[in-house]
Each structure stands twice: as structure tokens, then as C-alpha cells.
Design goal:
Radius of gyration: 20 Å
Strand order of the largest sheet: 3-2-1-4-5-6-8-7
Distance between the termini: 61 Å
Helix content: 25-40%
Number of domains: 1
Number of helices: 13
Structural class: alpha/beta
CATH architecture: Alpha-Beta Complex
CATH superfamily: Ribonucleoside hydrolase-like
Shape: globular
Largest sheet: 8 strands, mixed
CATH topology: Inosine-uridine Nucleoside N-ribohydrolase, Chain A
Strand content: 5-15%
Length: 353
């Protein structure tokens, strides 16, 4: 394990025509809209939602950064796929921060909540590669790396400590420091609330700059006994995965007093079908991102239809559709915004009519 004996794979030696070029837009004179942070756990639906955010006019939605939950549906190294998507969209300027790989209060190794995510088909095996489609994306010069230095707690400096993967809280601090005095941040979350809870608990200034949080998660079971979606824990009938993966974080965020809009499982189940969205993409203008989204949705649709091991992936589609509706400020079919009070906490909730 001595440094001088370490082998380094050189990508440019293997692929001579590859050039490490960073694509960053000139934003000096750009009119920028509402500052948005996207918190994701790298499920396939999250990548579709990310593409929608990147396609939105910057005058309306200004994506300032991406926070990644390491305790969600993909391994931390899947951050590379986020870098590749940003590279394809010409947004190598957007910082990506990696959060904790365990829930709040859980040990670094052996977190019981993360064990609920399958490792094989329909789990890490597919989400880490986006069903094998991640390889078609252009390779970004930015990569996930475990390179570290003594400055950040490593036992020794490694060969290239400057390549250290930024942490979610560091990206949050960077975004907050660059805000104008009148700016407020809107946060869209599509995974466990670990990153948001850490920010609220660790940064005293966070609540003053967060305007609103949209949370795709929770399950408000009605009188008809609607079941949750944690299918890998049969004894837990009513939980929803995003809240289940870190219940302490969910509690901290909900009780923070911030302006929160919940999109619970019952509302998610009201959205359109795979077939209608894939049909629209099939007839849309052909761009690299639309072709990628079409192939990804088509793969999800076929697997969900033909293989019982993939029955749950429709929930990833819900995430994409819900976030798209939020960004377009449209009312979802058959749903309304309803205000509820839970233990003196006022929450805006999307519920079925």
C-alpha cells in the first residue's frame, strides 16, 4: 500500500481522442431566476428530474447546486453519473456535494435502514448504472474520488488531494455565501432528508435563507388502509421509503418550522402513466437529453411490466413527474394543495381530491 507502488489508471492514455474539457456557461450578464438546490439519492427518476431542471429557463429556475444522499438508492460513486449528465448539458459549473452514507444517529457501518434497499435487480445493481445506460453519457472530467489529505482527517496526504469529492454541507455553505442579500433558496428533495436535516441542525443561518422545501416523501394513510412502499420490510406496512431511510432526519426537517410542501405517496400514485410520457418523448425534438430520457423511461416501463422484481420502480417515475409539475407550477391531475397541522407544525400537503 505504499504510495510509490500505487497504480493509476490513465484514461487519456487509453482513449487518445478524449480531452478533458469543462463546459461552463457565461453567467455574467445572465438573468437568473429563483435559486434552487436539488437534493437527490440518485434513483433513475432523480436523473430525469435533474434533466428537467437543467432544461428549465434560467430566468425562472437557477439550479445552484446538487446535494446527494449517500444513504439512498445508489452507491456514492454514482456521483460520476451526475457529473456526466451535467457535462452533457454544458453545466460543469454546478457543484455536487456528497452527504452521509448512513442515517442520522446510525453507525457509519451497519445502518439498518439502508439494508432495506435491494442489492441486485431493482436495487443497487440497476441504479448504479441506470440500467446500463450510464455508459452512453459523455465522460466528464469531474469524477468521484476517495483522494484525501491530512487537512480533512486522512492519515496521510494522497497523490492528488485536490480531487477530493466535496461534501454536501460544503456545497451548501458555498451556495449560501454567494447569495445576494435578497435571495432565498428553494430546495427540492427526492430522497432521504439526511442532507437537509444536517444543514438545519449545523447551520444557524440556514432557516433565514431557505424560502421553501418541496419534499417528495411521507405517507399519510387514509381510512382505506393504503399501504406504503417499503416492500422489502413486509412487517412495515405503512412506511414510505424516503422517510423510512432516515426517520430522525424527516422528524428534524418537518419540525423545523420552515415552509414545507409534502408530496406524499397517495398523491404520487395519481400521476400519469409511463406510456403517456414515453409517447410524448418519442415524438419530441431529438436531442441527446431527450433520447437518453426516452431510453431510460422505456427501460423502466418494460421492466416494470414484465418482471415482478421491478414492480416498485414506478415510484421512481413518480419522483420525476411530481418534480416536473412543481417546476412548471402546474396543478397535478386530481390533486390539490391542502394545509394540515401535525403537533402544532403547519405543513402544506399535496392530497388527492
Amino acid at each position: 500500500n505504499r504510495p510509490e507502488h500505487t497504480g493509476h489508471f490513465n484514461f487519456t492514455d487509453q482513449f487518445r481522442h478524449y480531452k478533458e474539457i469543462m463546459y461552463k456557461p457565461d453567467l455574467e450578464h445572465q438573468i437568473r431566476g429563483k435559486p434552487v438546490i436539488f437534493d437527490m439519492d440518485m434513483s433513475p427518476g432523480d436523473f430525469l428530474a435533474l434533466l428537467c431542471l437543467l432544461k428549465a429557463p434560467m430566468e425562472a429556475i437557477d439550479l445552484r447546486g446538487i446535494l446527494v444522499s449517500g444513504n439512498g438508492w445508489a452507491n456514492p460513486a454514482t456521483v460520476d453519473v451526475i457529473y456526466d449528465v451535467l457535462h452533457m448539458m454544458g453545466r460543469d459549473d454546478i457543484p455536487v456535494g456528497l452527504g452521509k452514507i448512513t442515517a442520522l444517529g446510525a453507525p457509519d457501518l451497519g445502518c439498518e435502514y439502508v439494508k432495506a434497499i435491494p442489492h441486485g435487480s431493482g436495487g443497487f445493481l440497476d441504479t448504479d448504472t441506470l440500467f446500463g445506460l450510464a455508459w452512453v453519457l459523455p465522460r466528464s472530467p469531474r469524477r468521484y474520488t476517495a483522494e484525501n489529505s491530512v487537512k480533512y482527517g486522512a492519515p496521510r496526504d494522497t497523490a492528488r488531494p485536490e480531487l477530493r469529492q466535496p461534501l454536501a454541507f460544503e456545497v451548501w455553505q458555498h451556495i449560501r455565501e454567494e447569495l445576494k442579500p435578497t435571495d432565498k433558496i428553494t430546495i427540492l428533495t427526492n430522497g432521504p432528508l439526511t442532507n437537509i436535516a444536517n444543514i438545519i441542525l449545523s447551520d444557524p443561518k440556514a432557516e433565514s435563507v431557505i424560502e421553501r422545501i418541496f419534499i417528495v416523501g411521507s405517507h399519510l394513510a387514509g381510512g382505506n388502509g393504503d399501504r406504503g412502499n417499503v416492500f422489502t420490510v413486509p412487517s412495515n406496512k405503512f412506511s414510505e421509503f424516503n422517510f423510512f431511510l432516515d426517520p430522525q432526519a424527516a422528524k428534524a426537517v418537518v419540525e423545523s418550522g420552515l415552509d414545507i410542501t409534502l408530496i406524499p405517496l397517495r398523491a404520487q400514485r395519481q400521476v400519469d402513466s409511463f406510456k403517456e410520457v414515453t409517447r410524448s418523448l418519442c415524438t419530441a425534438e431529438k436531442t441527446p437529453e431527450s433520447s437518453f430520457a426516452y431510453q431510460l423511461l422505456l427501460s423502466m416501463q418494460k421492466l416494470q411490466k414484465n418482471n415482478q422484481a421491478y414492480h416498485h420502480i414506478v415510484s421512481w417515475f413518480y419522483r420525476f413527474y411530481i418534480q416536473t409539475a412543481i417546476m412548471e407550477k402546474t396543478t397535478l391531475d386530481s390533486v390539490v394543495i391542502h394545509t394540515v397541522t401535525i403537533d402544532s407544525v403547519v405543513i402544506h400537503t399535496v392530497l388527492s381530491k
